[in-house]
Structure formats: C-alpha cells, structure tokens
Amino acid sequence: MRSMNGSRRNSGSSLVSSSSASSNLSHLEEDTWILWGRIANEWEEWRRRKEKLLKELIRKGIPHHFRAIVWQLLCSATDMPVKNQYSELLKMSSPCEKLIRRDIARTYPEHEFFKGQDSLGQEVLFNVMKAYSLVDREVGYCQGSAFIVGLLLMQMPEEEAFCVFVRLMQEYRLRELFKPSMAELGLCIYQFEYMLQEQLPDLNTHFRSQSFHTSMYASSWFLTLFLTTFPLPVATRIFDIFMYEGLEIVFRVGLALLQVNQTELMQLDMEGMSQYFQRVIPHQFDSCPDKLILKAYQVKYNPKKMKRLEKEYAAMKSKEMEEQIEIKRLRTENRLLKQRIETLEKESAALADRLIQGQVTRAQEAEENYVIKRELAVVRQQCSSAAEDLQKAQSTIRQLQEQQDNPRLTEDFVAHLETELEQSRLRETETLGALREMQDKVLDMEKRNSSLPDENNVARLQEELKALKVREGEAVASARELKLQLQELSDTWQAHLSRGGRWKESPRKLVLGELQDELMSVRLREAQALAEGRELRQRVVELETQDHIHRNLLNRVEAERAALQEKLQYLAAQNKGLQTQLSESRRKQAEAECKSKEEVMAVRLREADSMAAVAEMRQRIAELEIQREEGRIQGQLNHSDSSQYIRELKDQIEELKAEVRLLKGPPPFEDPLAFDGLGLARHLDEDSLPSSDEELLGVGVGAALQDALYPLSPRDARFFRRLERPAKDSEGSSDSDADELAAPYCQGLDN
C-alpha cells in the first residue's frame, strides 16, 4: 500500500510538474501577447523611451498576429493619403499589366493563398502591383517586388499592404533598387564585395579564381530580402528586422551565411557553388532561425565605412559616365570626319573630271576656232575678189553705157555681158551667204568661250601646260642624247665585231680584245641604266606635275567649300529668321483664332440668352393664354351656376304660388292671416292674387314671402331688387338678361 501510495504520489507529482510546465508556456505566450499589445497601444512612448528593448524584442521575432499592425507602425504607414486613391487607381489601366500577369503565377507558387489561377491571392497581388505601377511610373514594375508584396498580403488587407509597400519603396532604398538602371543594386554589390574581401579574403580569392561573381548569388538577396532564399518562417524573421533596421540586416545575414559555409565553398568549383547556394544553404536554419540571427549580429558592420564606400562608388560611376560620354563624342566626331573625307574625295574626283573635261572641251573648241578662222579668211579673200570682180563689171557696164551709141556693138556681145553679170551676182550672193554663216559660227564660238572657265583659271592651266611642255622638251632632249650615245656605242661595237682574223692574233691581244668587249658591254649596260634612270626621272617629274595639279585642284575645292559654307551659314541665318517670322505669324494667327473663338462664343452666348428670353416670353404668353382660357371657362361655369340658381328660385316661386292658391277662401279675410305663425301686411282677396310669376313679383308678395322664408343678406336683397326692376319694365325679358344680372351675384358667392 505504501509503495502504491508512493507511486501514486510520484505519478501525481509528475502530472503536476507537466501541467506546471504547460501552464508556464501558456503564461509565457500570454505575457508575450500582453507585452506586444501594450507596445502596439503605447507605440510612441516605446519608440522614444524604450528603443533598445524594442529592438531586442523585434530581433527575437514579432508574433504572427501582431505583424500587420507592428509593420505599419514601424514604417509609419497607418494614415497615408495614397490609401484614399487606391480604389481610383484600380479603375485605371497600366502599361505593365501584361508583365504583372505573367509573373504572378511564379510568385509563391506553393503557398495556398496564391495557388491556382485566378485565385484571391493572385488577384489582390495584381491589384497592388498595378496600383503602384500607376503611382510610380518611373519604376513601374520589377520582378522581385512581387515577393515583398505577397508577404505583406499574407499579413494584412490589400489597401494596407499597398500603403506599406509605398512606404518601403520611398524610405527603405527599395525604389532605387528597383529602378530600370538598378544603380542602388550595383552599390550594394560593391559594398558587399568590400566586406567579403575584408572579412573573408580566402573565400573572396576562391570566388575570383572560379569567376563566381557576387551578383550571381547576392542579387536576389537584396532584391527579395531573402524571401526567395529561405522558407517563409526564417524569411519573415529577417523581414521583421529589416522593417526596423533597413538593408543592414541583408549585409549581415549574407556574410553570416558565407562564414558558416566557407569551408564547404572553398572545395567546390563554380557549378558546385551554384548548386550549393540553391539547395543546401536555404534549409540550414529551418529549425533554428535564432542561430542565424545570432550569427548575423556577430558580423562586423561599420556604417561610416559603408558611407565612404558609397561616395567612392558614386565617384567611380560618375567617372565612368564621363568616359562613356567622351567615347561617344569621339565616335561621333570620327564618324563625321569620315563622312567629310568621303564627301571631299567625291568632290575632288568630280572636280578632276570637270577639269579634264574642260581641258578636252577647250582643246576641241580651240581647234574648231582655228578651223573657223581659216574658213573666215578664205571667205574674206573670196569676198574681196568678188568685190573686185563686181567693180570690174560695173566699170565695164559704165563703159558699155558710154558706148551704147556705138553701132559696132552687136546684140550677141550685149547678151554675153549680161550673162557674165548674172554669174557675178550669183557668186556675190553665195559669198555673202558664206560670210553670214562664218559670222554666226564666230558668234557661237564667242558664246562658248564666254561659258568656259575664267581667265585666271585659263592662265593657270596655260602655265601648267607650258611647264609640262618644258619638261617634255627636256625629256625629249635627254632621250635624244641617250639615243646618240647608244648609236655611238652600237657603231663602236659593230666596228669592233667587223674586225676579223682574231684567231690569228697572239693570246695577249685576244685577252685584250675580250677585255675591250667586256668594257663595251659594261658601257652599254651603263647607258641602258642611264636611260632607265632618265625615264624614271621623267616619270617622277610627271608625278610631281600631277601632284601640283591636284594641289591646285584641292585649293580651289577648299575655296569653293569655304564659299559654300559661308553661303550655308547665310542660308541658315536666313532660315532662322524665317522660322522666327513663321513662329511669330503662327502665334499671331493663334491669338487671332482665340479672339475669333471668344467672339463667336460671346455671340453664341448672347444668342442663347436671347433664345432663353424668347422662350421665357413664349412660356409667359402661353401661361397667360391658359389663364385667360381658364378664366373664360370659369366664367362660363359661374354663368351656368347662376342660371341653375335662377331656375331653383323659379321653382321655389312656383311652390309659393301653389301655397298661395291653397290659402285662398270664399269670404274675404277679416282677420289677419296666419301662415306658419307669420303675419302678412295686408289682406288678399281672390281678385288681387296674381295669375303669373311676374304679377306675383309685381305686387311684391314674392319678395315678402322670400324675405320671410329665406332671410338674405343686404347684398342678396339688393340682387333680388335688381331682378324685380327689369320685370316691371319689361315682361318679355329672357333668361339671358337674368343671367347677366346674376353674374355678379354668382361671382360674389364664389368669392
């Protein structure tokens, strides 16, 4: 029993200890919830007075249910004006919608909130990314930003996530990271490489030897804040610290990862290191994220040194930009110079062709001019001879006229003289025609000569031609001398060969002859060499002449180019003035159009006002007509009511007449007549009773009965008295007269 009781006590104590442990955990969770609830409620006080404690609590991790409000408080995104614009932004269209739709399916594809096409998570992620692309059109959309927005959407609604993301882009350097130039990413990589070289030099040397650049593994760390590297629990812990401390945690965590895995990475090549970063490193701290945070804060991080590196990187980039601008400028100048050289070469070739063509044309025209001059001299000679013949013929005619009285002259002789005269006239006509043709040719040649280059160019060409002729004469003279020398040498050689019997001479003479032969052959070769040298000199002279001609051409081309450039500048200035005048005229035209539009608008407004006034007048007229018609209809109705009232009165009068007949008796009334307690003023006999309504009204009985039975107001009494007076005047009055008399009464009743 004691053992059983002891075992029971032991088991009871174990149960108590286990329950106490669970209660301690629950109390700890409750204390954490109470603490973070107090922090959220007293945020400003904690931020000012308990900053160190708040930093330690954030490094240990923000509870899941408090992350949404704490993240908004950390980045001051609770009350942002852009939140009110969110619904309006969703109604607009963005140029980045296709890119966002393409990348949404690749954002957290395994998470339940974003899994499946057209899911709620994908839709709200698209809305937030589209709204930000409209707010910040310079950044638009970048792929890595979708993972940050996705993490925010896991914690809070889309409007609040949009506000937090806008604040992160503006205040946490993310906007510079996601710009199209990604200049901030280059700075982060530069700073990270410096820290790697300073703290892990061996690993940095290994990376460089394997051509494993920092951007190959660290770019995603900075762009997604490790959201694509670690699982969400670890990445969320890093994001908590990032919301409070900024990008510093990314540098720390990155270097901590490299320190932990330095030994393994030193043994791998580039492909192995790439696989290691993708498969091994992401899952090293799944069970203990606190260990990664502890390692990260053991890394040395100097903010002043990071600022200095930032300045160095900015200076380096500005220098590179200046060099690129200078290179671009030099390339542009080189291209322009090449184009100018090609243009000048084309112009030089064209001018050379023109010069050659001009020289050929001038030679042809000079030859034609010489031929024409010769023909002109011949024609002039023929003209002078014809004139002499004509003078002779005229003298002969005068002699014949003087000798007309001479009978010895026969008719045959006269006919012969006439024939000769006609022939001489024909020859004179032909000569004059030929002279005119030659004169026309001379004029044509003078015109063609005037179209040729000016006298200065001709003088230069003549000087060049003279120099060429002088050089050609020298070359011909030297060639003649060489020919004479060759002729002498050949004659000597032939004379030497013509000697015979050399086989009979002594050996010494034979040797001497051979030497002479060799000497002669050497002299011949020397002469040939001299001739070749002269030819080469002649060629050099020709080339120098051509060079001189080309230089002259280039000088003329340069002068023409300068003239053309001046003309171009003049035309550009003139064009600028014309453009200014055109812009001024357009401005005046625009002002005139504006004035005309304003005048037209004013006229239209006046027309609209007048039309509105006319419409109001018409409406008023219509209302008046309607009122008049209503009055007329009301008058008719009132008229009809008075007629009906008169008829009723007639009916009452007939009833009274019937009652009066009933009251008639045989004897005359001696006593006053009693009628329903009413006393009559006088006695009525049978003869005195009227026989009609008019008579009744005439004797005044009707008025008395009416006053007795239906008491009326003074106005009604006056009305009935007006009715009685016409009855006395005319018994044949109609109902229409009664109606006219009753109209005022009826109107009074209506009032």
From TrEMBL:
Q: Outline the segment boundaries, as ranges, of region: Disordered.
A: 1-20, 723-751
**What keywords are annotated for this sequence in UniProt?**
Coiled coil, Membrane, Phosphoprotein, Transmembrane, Transmembrane helix
Tell me the PROSITE patterns matching this sequence: TBC_RABGAP
Stored PANTHER family? ECOTROPIC VIRAL INTEGRATION SITE 5 LIKE (PTHR47219:SF12), RAB GTPASE-ACTIVATING PROTEIN 1-LIKE (PTHR47219)
Residue intervals of the Rab-GAP TBC domain: 61-246
The gene designation is: EVI5L
Tell me which SUPFAM superfamilies the record gives.
Ypt/Rab-GAP domain of gyp1p
* Name of a matching Pfam family: RabGAP-TBC
Q: Which residues form a coiled coil?
A: 306-354, 526-666
Q: Which InterPro entries match?
A: Rab-GAP-TBC_dom, Rab-GAP_TBC_sf, Rab_GAP_TBC_domain
Concerning SMART domains, the annotation shows: TBC
Q: What is this protein called?
A: EVI5-like protein isoform X4
Gene Ontology MF terms: GTPase activator activity; small GTPase binding
